[in-house]
Amino acid sequence: MSQSIQLVYFDGKGRAEAIRLALTIGDIPFEDVRLSIDQFQEANSSGQLPLAQLPVLKIGAETLPQSMAILRYAGRLASLYPEDPFLAARVDTVLDTFQDLVAKVYRETDPEKKEASRKQIAAEDIPLAFRYLESLLQKSGSGFLVGQSLSIADLYAYTIINTLKSGILDHIPQNVLDPFPQVLALHNIVASHPKVQAWEAAHKK
Predict the structure, then answer these.
(1) pTM of the complete model beyond 0.90
(2) Does residue 91 contact residue 152 with C-beta atoms inside 8 Å?
(3) Residue 24 φ then ψ, to 5°
(4) Helix (H, G, I), strand (E, B) or coil at 120
(5) Residue 31: strand, helix, or coil
(6) 62-81 tens-digit pLDDT
């Protein structure tokens, strides 16, 4: 691209990591801008954030908010989003499934209610979402969620799986995905991608 690209987020993985990976895999040059809380507040108060949230993608003079819109845009730039309308819609179902799941995981903030909520999510919502992913992997037969090659659906799944396996989510067991062997195999495929390995080696905490 002739225009410069900046991906602006906090200094963490969160909603930006799949976007970073897509741009990296697609060899799309971008500046990985990581803001502190104070810098975020300053950017917000100065009108730089259209929806008062991160991430945003700055493309030349334009600013694009909303993480899923940015991920799809990055996927198109990197040839990681299908041109076929049906396959693109199938990728979207994966993104939307995870958006619903993430919203449920973080919805309850009351400490007394969060434990019960998270346990229900681990017992019901996570298995429902990952049974769907297993069915997509079974249909594709390629090791990838959609079609015969890597897509942003796989990258977003990879980041979600990393979070679930990390143990950072209270009351959700780290082995919650053990019943889903094809999903774990997908995680290994993405983790072994040379550009993913290089990115993660360069950004170890």
Answers:
(1) yes
(2) yes
(3) -65, -45
(4) helix
(5) strand
(6) 999 999 999 999 999 999 99
pLDDT above 90 as % of the chain: 97
Mapped onto helix, strand or coil, the DSSP state of residue 7 is strand
Strand partners of residue 65: 56
Q: How far is CA 141 from CA 124, 134, 169, in A?
A: 26, 11, 31
Sheet with 62-65, side-by-side order of all strands: 31-35, 5-10, 56-59, 62-65
35 token code pair: 């803001």
The pLDDT score that the predictor gives to residue 17 is 98
Q: Alpha-carbon distance 51 to 95, whole Å? A: 20
8 in helix, strand or coil?
strand
Cis omega (within 30 of 0) on the bond before 55? yes
The burial of 173, by beta-carbon neighbours within 10 Å (0-12 exposed, 13-18 middle, 19 or more buried), is given as middle
Q: What are the CA-CA distances from residue 103 to residues 107, 113, 121 (Å)?
A: 6, 16, 11
- Hey, how many other C-beta atoms are within 10 angstroms of the C-beta on 18? 28
Phi and psi torsions of 161, nearest 5°: -60, -40
**Radius of gyration for the chain, computed over Cα atoms and rounded to the nearest angstrom:** 17
Closest by Cα among 166, 152, 181 to 90: 152
Give the model confidence (pLDDT) of 110-133 as tens digits. 988 999 999 999 999 999 999 999
